[in-house]
Amino acid sequence: MDKVDNQLLAALRADARASHSTLAATLGLSRATVRARIDKMVARGDIVGFSVVTQADVQRDPVRGLMMIGIEGRGTEKIMRSLQGMPEMRAVHSTNGRWDVIVEIGTETLDAFDAVLFRIRRLDGVVASETSLLLSTRLSV
Question: Among 28, 42, 123, 137, which residue carries the largest CB count within 10 Å?
């Protein structure tokens, strides 16, 4: 993938429904070039699908955040299973570095968010955590 492909992907991320003509005008390319590049990226597997983001998707979780979790010993798998069972979890990631697990949390209210943090911190084996609220989203893929 080159610079033009990356620009095309960025435009598609912003509006996956944009027509080839609109994308061509935005990027200063011909409509045929846009179509050929998209077809090539799909064939190579660079693009595996197109999606729609609805208003409900955006408003689903008015309060969102990331929680980094430090775990003592070998309890990571058990804690990850507990986290995956919590309905407020949007994603559970294993990672490297200072933190063992990073979770994406979504709730309706700050009180509900605080209750989730409290539950996670009480899990046996959780020794440290750090949480950041997500204030706004500039790019979502």
Answer: 123
